[in-house]
Amino acid sequence: MPKERLKNNLPAVAGKPFELPKDWEWVRLDILGETQTGTTPPRSDMQNFGDFIPFIGPGDILDYTIDYSKYGLSEKGLSKGRLIEKGSILMVCIGGSIGKSAVNNIDVACNQQIDTITPYIKHSLEYLFYSLNAPYFQNSVIKYSSGSATPIINKQKWISLLTPLHPLNEQKRIAKKVNELMSLCDTFEEKLEKKEEKGERLVRTVVNGVGNN
């Protein structure tokens, strides 16, 4: 049913933020995949914790990657938690790192400070990930969060946020182009780091030379 809705029966969206190109549609996030909020098994029972499956918290999501090594649940703990399938997007929904996200490349569980979406169409994963990290969506996360000292966006608000849906071939083209640009940025960053290292060595050489005179 979800996939059929996605293809043939997109619900109307009121209050569209801006006009999109032909064949693009504004859709709410929950139309695009299975959404969940993590949960923590009772800490009073330490048998819930172990190394059966990684247990992810906000601090484990780092620069679009995930550190799987810190915490884990036992098989018993997973039965009281929520399985987040490989190929999902995990987004922090509370605190100073709200909006930070990454894709899991293995099955995990996560705590209640993280919302997740597992795309119905697997080929849309890269595109959806880039969409959720675009300034428009990130600004929406902040706009609809509550609390000033500790911002938080609940699941119902998060899944109702709007994102542009493109034809599948356009999604693939956009994801490919963004990947190319990200790779180019990585290359520039690496060259800049090497240049800075050379500059630092030159400064040390000059300073050492002056000190020896």
Quick structural gist:
The protein has 213 residues and is α+β, with helices and mostly antiparallel strands. It contains 6 helices and 11 strands. It has 2 domains: 2-166, DNA methylase specificity domains (Adenine-n6-DNA-methyltransferase TaqI, Chain A, domain 2, Alpha-Beta Complex), CATH 3.90.220.20; 167-213.
| Total number of distinct structural domains | 2
Radius of gyration: 21 Å
Estimate what percentage of residues fall within beta strands.
15-25%
The share of residues in helices is: 25-40%
Tally of individual helices: 6
Shape, principal axes of CA atoms: globular
How does CATH name the architecture of the largest domain?
Alpha-Beta Complex
Going by helix content, strand content and strand pairing, the class is alpha+beta
Q: What would CATH call the class of the largest domain?
A: Alpha Beta
Report the count of strand segments. 11
CATH topology of the largest domain: Adenine-n6-DNA-methyltransferase TaqI, Chain A, domain 2
Sketch the topology as an H/E string, one letter per element. HEEEEEEHEEEEHHHEH
Mean pLDDT: 81
- Give the uncertain stretches in residue-range form: 1-8
Describe this structure in words.
The N terminus is likely disordered. The relative contact order is 0.15. The chain starts with a helix and ends with a helix. The chain is globular and about 55 Å long. A hairpin with an 8-residue loop joins strand 7 and strand 8. Helix content is 37%, strand content 20%. Helix 3 crosses helix 6. The chain is α+β, with helices and mostly antiparallel strands. The protein has two domains: 165 residues, DNA methylase specificity domains (Adenine-n6-DNA-methyltransferase TaqI, Chain A, domain 2); 47 residues. It has a four-stranded antiparallel β-sheet with strand order 2-10-7-8. It has a three-stranded mixed β-sheet with strand order 6-3-9. The chain has a two-stranded antiparallel ribbon with strand order 1-11.
